Amino acid sequence: GFLQLMQQLTVVGDVSRGMFDAKMQQLEKLGDYHRIVVIEDVKSGRVVATGSIFIEHKFARSCGKVGHLEDVVVDERMRGCHLGQRVIEALTSFAEDAGCYKVILDCKPENAAFYEKCGYSKKEIQMAKYF
């Protein structure tokens, strides 16, 4: 159910079981540089919330580290149950424990209030180039 949940956030495309397993193996090799948090509804066995973070090692800030929050999504049927906050708290805590000096994320304008409730603030602007 992980990929079905991700489809509520973005285009997932056609991902075979083999592709999924290969990607998980790649991510496992990143060790302490990447985490995925998943919340499962044990009654239904469905994945109902997820998010990930990766740690970027910088030369700036005395060779500091930055956490990048990505792919945060809560199943539309479970929104309002504070699951998103739990995901953000877990990922933010991971970044803090990893010694990051900041955590950054991109979001749609309509989601900014949610992230502000989680302690994040607006800063600068996002730019993107898709291929």
TrEMBL record:
Cross-referenced Pfam families: Acetyltransf_1 (PF00583)
Family assignment from sequence similarity: Belongs to the acetyltransferase family. GNA1 subfamily.
Any one GO biological process: UDP-N-acetylglucosamine biosynthetic process
Superkingdom to which the source organism belongs: Eukaryota
UniProt name for this protein: Glucosamine 6-phosphate N-acetyltransferase
UniProt organism field: Selaginella moellendorffii (Spikemoss)
Reaction it catalyzes: D-glucosamine 6-phosphate + acetyl-CoA = N-acetyl-D-glucosamine 6-phosphate + CoA + H(+)
All residue ranges annotated as the N-acetyltransferase domain in the record: 1-131
Keywords (A to Z) from UniProt: Acyltransferase, Transferase
Molecular function via GO: glucosamine 6-phosphate N-acetyltransferase activity
Quaternary structure (record): Homodimer.
EC number assigned by the record: 2.3.1.4
Signal sequence annotation: none
